[in-house]
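Review the following:
>
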Amino acid sequence: MALKHVRTLGPVFSANYQGRILSQCRSTTWTTTKLRSSSAGGEEAGTGQTVVSERRGSVLTVAIRRPEVRNAVNRETARRLLEELQAFDSDPDLNVAVLHGEGGNFCAGYDLKTLANQKAPLKLEQDVTKGPGPMGPSRLQLSKPLIAAVSGFAVAGGLELALLADLRVVEESAVMGIFCRRFGVPLIDGGTVRLPRLIGLSRALDLILTGRPVGAQEALAFGLANRVVPDGQDHFLHHSCKNRPC
């Protein structure tokens, strides 16, 4: 899984955090906390929780848990993602967060089936500098590093969540793309700003206007991916920083 390769990214963390991270990696026993939901109160995660997190020293992992819909985000999931990353950004004991999806996919965007069946329309903030986006944290400007560990599909709003991250570790079989055009939905979670900044306007227009899928190697060549790693679900993040640099 892409998560187990996060340790190779230690050297690219900013100098402000790197010393603290390496110091803790060498000295800590890495006893993990319980998984918890990102809803208020931080209760232990159980059946039905759509976002779960796990704290390991100064590293926080945040997982989308809706594998039955390829981790497509609904209103509750968006709210919980926003809460989790806001809490991470304000916690002085956390230095870096890793965002991933459970069950083999990162995120397939917003859950359009749920949206179609909603009685009340989805309220959207037209000013992209205010309030959360439909995907939740997509309009945040975090002050600490966020890594997206991408497996399976990271498309439409799911790709926009990956673009929120500072670094993207992508599995070999992953598929990325701006599929919004295929379904006539707007690209309003930061993709039209972050994607051109990341890979250039010409390549961004290619992906936005065609809606075509992009494989891991092409994403690496574009600069959309920072690392391409082998597929695999056998490890999580358990020993990634134990007695070695993160």
Q: What stands out?
A: The two ends are 16 Å apart (CA to CA). The longest helix spans residues 75-90. Helices lie at 15-27, 75-90, 112-117, 157-164, 180-183, 191-199, 201-210, 216-222. The beta strands are 36-37, 51-56, 59-64, 96-101, 146-150, 153-155, 167-171, 175-177, 214-215, 227-229.
